[in-house]
Write a structure and sequence with these properties.
seven-stranded antiparallel β-sheet; 2 domains; single chain; globular; mainly beta
């Protein structure tokens, strides 16, 4: 499965679309503190010729460039909100978390279309406002000169009401060099549980609109120009077979909620971000997991399919107990409600899906207990080695903490 990072001669391409709009703020005292109350632009309800719709929505999609230690990442975003005051004209852009992850600086290339149809672009320095890995949504901001008005996209009123067969248009940056490309298709399914790389299982909208490397994060719009989803993943192979038209988008309701939260919770002082935004309640787990066939004990008489997990970083609440070691997860209990992973007959798919749902639903402040067994490795010298599951049941308990993305700058 491809997840939207396209590397071409050191360039990582991906992009996104989202829309909120109209952002107000207050400031007071000697220290500037803005309160960002984001309101959504009304959804478009008027039928227009397709060429007029594209002229209206294409300038809302921008190319995003992330500078990283290993090179440059190319992607896109959508202008969604504005906060204006005398001398300061701040616009907010949504993109995918995996587009900005690892970036140390950012730029946004904004499209303008003149009345005679001529197109031009302006490049602005962009600032990271906040990001959510589990939701694959991030927000950047740019400050064009005072008086400069930029186009902003509008969310559909309710993406849960989008139906299978709805005509859609994807705007993106295929190959990382063809920004503003429009492709056409339909909504193939409205809710699919899809495994997306290290993020885990996400509930996504499926489309057959043409999507290539570099389109990840692109906007999925309906025939009235409303944003209904954010392209973030797709399949080009499945079970070693080449496939076409299997692409997925974050539903607009979910993308809007995350973006609005990131904007409203971030803090600024003198035009600089002093606290990154976050989605209230999203917990920091930093936990990777997968399924593996292991011997059930040291006798090596039988094997079983197990859910195996590890702390993904030193920031994980599991790291102090587990270090960098892998563990077999038996159960996860959250506020007294237990999810068991030891039932016989569990397939690898069902184990992974159950784990993803259990972990993603853990909220900051909740009490968590994980039962686990150690994975024991034994060497057979020239004949290799084997792993088996230790018989002792262990527990680790903690209170989940708020996830706030901190870039490694």
């Amino acid at each position: 499965m491809k997840k939207g990072k396209l590397i071409l001669s050191g360039v990582l391409a991906a992009l996104l679309g989202v829309s909120l709009a109209g952002c107000s703020f207050d400031s007071g005292g000697t220290v500037e503190k803005r309160v960002f109350n984001v309101s959504m632009t009304e959804s478009n309800t008027v039928d227009l010729p397709e060429e007029d719709i594209f002229e209206r929505i294409r300038p809302t999609v921008v190319d995003v460039t992330s500078t990283m230690e290993a090179g440059t990442a190319a992607g896109s975003g959508v202008i969604i909100a504005v906060a204006e005051e005398e001398g300061d004209n701040e616009y907010f852009i949504v993109t995918n978390h995996h587009v900005i992850d690892g970036g140390t600086s950012f730029k946004a290339d904004v499209l303008s279309i003149a009345e005679d149809g001529n197109e031009s672009t302006t490049v602005y320095d962009a600032t990271l406002v906040g990001s959510s890995m589990k939701r694959d949504i991030a927000v950047l901001s740019i400050r064009p000169p005072e008086g400069t008005k930029l186009s902003m996209a509008s969310f559909i009123a309710d993406s849960d009401k989008v139906k299978v067969g709805t005509e859609v248009f994807a705007i993106g940056n295929p190959l990382g060099i063809l920004g503003g490309t429009v492709t056409h298709g339909i909504v193939s399914a409205t809710k699919r549980d899809v495994s997306v790389g290290e993020i885990g299982t996400m509930t996504l909208m499926q489309t057959d609109a043409s999507i290539n490397g570099g389109n990840s994060g692109g906007g999925l719009f309906d025939s009235k120009g409303n944003l209904i989803g954010i392209i973030n993943s797709g399949y080009d192979t499945y079970n070693d077979q080449s496939v076409e038209g299997l692409n997925f988008a974050i539903p607009a309701n979910d993308a809007k909620f995350a973006a609005q939260s990131l904007i409203e919770t971030h803090e600024e002082q003198s035009g600089k971000v002093t606290k990154y935004g976050y989605v209230d309640g999203d917990s920091r787990m930093d936990m990777t997991f997968f399924t593996a066939d292991l011997f059930t004990d040291s006798t090596l008489r039988s094997r079983g399919s197990y859910l195996v997990a590890a702390a993904a970083s030193e920031e994980s609440p599991l790291y102090s107990s587990w270090g960098n070691n892998y563990k077999v997860i038996l159960s996860i209990t959250v506020n007294g409600e237990k999810t068991d992973f030891t039932e016989s007959g569990n397939s690898s798919y069902s184990l992974t899906l159950s784990a993803s749902k259990a972990i993603s639903q853990i909220k900051a402040g909740e009490s968590v207990t994980i039962e686990y067994r150690n994975v024991v490795s034994r060497s057979l010298g020239l004949f290799g080695g084997y792993n088996y599951v230790d018989g002792d049941v262990n527990k680790v308990s903690f209170t989940a903490v708020q996830y706030i993305y901190q870039p490694q700058i």
